[in-house]
Structures are given as structure tokens and as C-alpha cells.
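As a warm-up, study this chain.
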Amino acid sequence: MPGQEYSLVVENNSNVVNLEVERLKRDKKKYETALNRLEDLYLFGDLFGDEGISQKDYILRNVTFN
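Now compare it with the structure written out below.
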């Protein structure tokens, strides 16, 4: 979680670096997933209403983000 710091006593500094890299990778994946969910909610939030996105906008979104 943001704002939390972890300390680990290790003999080798590379272990600390590896742990930090893994933590950053997990955070990146978490934020990418959240961003994708927010984009989908924004684009497709009103699936059953009259205000859904047009087919053209849907295709442009898929081409842009994929």
C-alpha cells in the first residue's frame, strides 16, 4: 500500500533490490488493472441506456488501447 515501508535485514543488497522490483511490478499491474476498469466503466457504464458509446468510438478505443 502507498505510504507503507517495509524493512528487511538481509546479507545481500541484491535481495532488497529484487524485493523492491517485485513490489513495483505488483503495484504497476494493480494500477493498470484499475485504469482499465475505470476506462471500461467510463466507456461502457451505461450499457443498458441510451447513452452507450457508438460503434465507431468502440472500434477506435480498441485500436488505440490494444
